[in-house]
Design brief:
The chain contains 13 helices and no strands. It is mainly α and 312 residues long. Helix 7 crosses helix 9. The radius of gyration is 19 Å and the shape is globular.
Length: 312
């Protein structure tokens, strides 16, 4: 971090890397589900990533610390990975990857509502309240817009992605309240390992065709680049710019998802997507931060997640 409190060059490079690393998974999930079942994707992605992160977690005792809190680590894994990964895989069998990435970006909206239910009245401040309203209007336009304009959208798939956003909004609260003393890499590695073991038999039962080379390649990218490497880069970003501002890259992820979906998969840029996109991003920004670049670190419910942003 620079002396003036801005990002250093290394900070900006890590920020840009994370915007890409967690903006591209939606594209590769869309490719993977062409011949891999959603449980197979979850099992392969989590087990491979866990094996790659294991040496880093063992070093320094992070894995040992996580094992002492394994029930809450498992709960975190179920909410952050087990549910979302399979729901995203199923949803992207019919939903464009760009729309999926954009709907996942609603996490701060749901996190703000959860904080409100927990007694955080700061959510009712005018800027944050307006952000909630604007963000959900954007969601309505993205989901309902195609139908109003004569197109079609799979409402079940859209609902699955919004459920993912709800789960992602819950996960940081588990970390903050139950796993605050556990090193992040220990929590991540153990939860990946647990989820992978849980999904391994489901993968065997649901995988009915021989995977194609593109799907296998997409799975490897998801495991190695978008999970293992991404988490290591995220930890480095936290060390460089601090835990409050590090997750701000999540506001850029939907841009990457939409652009890649349009260029690589020729997904259409519908009017509903183009209109709802800026509303959702602006709404999430104001709901999470009140329009401030750096929310006060002393109020953990300000809802820019301080440890684990949504992992696509």
């Amino acid at each position: 971090m620079t002396a003036q409190g801005g990002f250093s060059r290394r900070g900006w490079l890590l920020f840009a890397a994370m915007a890409v690393l967690w903006g591209v998974p939606y594209l590769f999930i869309s490719i993977a589900v062409e011949s891999l079942s959603p449980p197979s994707i979850v099992a392969g992605r989590t087990l491979l990533a866990a094996l790659l992160l294991l040496p880093f977690a063992i070093r320094g005792g992070a894995l040992r610390a996580a094992l002492r809190h394994w029930p809450w680590v498992l709960a975190f894994g179920l909410v952050e990975m087990a549910g979302p990964f399979v729901l995203l895989g199923h949803a992207e069998m019919t939903l464009p990857s760009g729309m999926t990435g954009l709907l996942v970006a609603t996490v701060p909206l749901f996190a703000a509502l959860i904080a409100l239910g927990g007694g955080d009245r700061g959510v009712l401040r005018p800027a944050r309240g307006l952000g909630l309203l604007v963000g959900f209007v954007g969601v309505a336009i993205v989901v309902a817009g195609p139908g109003l304009l004569g197109g079609e959208v799979d409402l079940l798939a859209a609902g699955e992605v919004l459920l993912v956003a709800v789960l992602y909004s819950i996960a940081p609260f588990i970390v903050a309240r139950k796993l605050a003393d556990v090193p992040s890499i220990g929590t991540i590695t153990l939860s990946l390992l647990m989820v992978g073991i849980i999904y391994l038999p489901l993968a065997a039962l649901t995988q009915h065709q021989i995977p194609t080379l593109p799907s296998i390649a997409a799975l490897l990218v998801l495991a190695v680049v978008c999970t293992a490497v991404a988490f290591l880069a995220f930890f480095a970003l936290i060390r460089e710019v601090g835990p409050v501002r590090a997750p701000l890259f999540t506001y850029v992820n939907p841009v990457v998802a939409i652009v890649l979906g349009a260029i690589v998969l020729a997904e259409p840029l519908t009017p509903g997507l183009l209109i709802g996109f800026p509303l959702i991003i602006a709404g999430c920004w104001f709901a999470a931060t009140g329009g401030r670049l750096r929310p006060p670190a002393s109020t953990p419910s300000e809802l820019v997640p301080t440890a684990h942003p949504p992992t696509p």
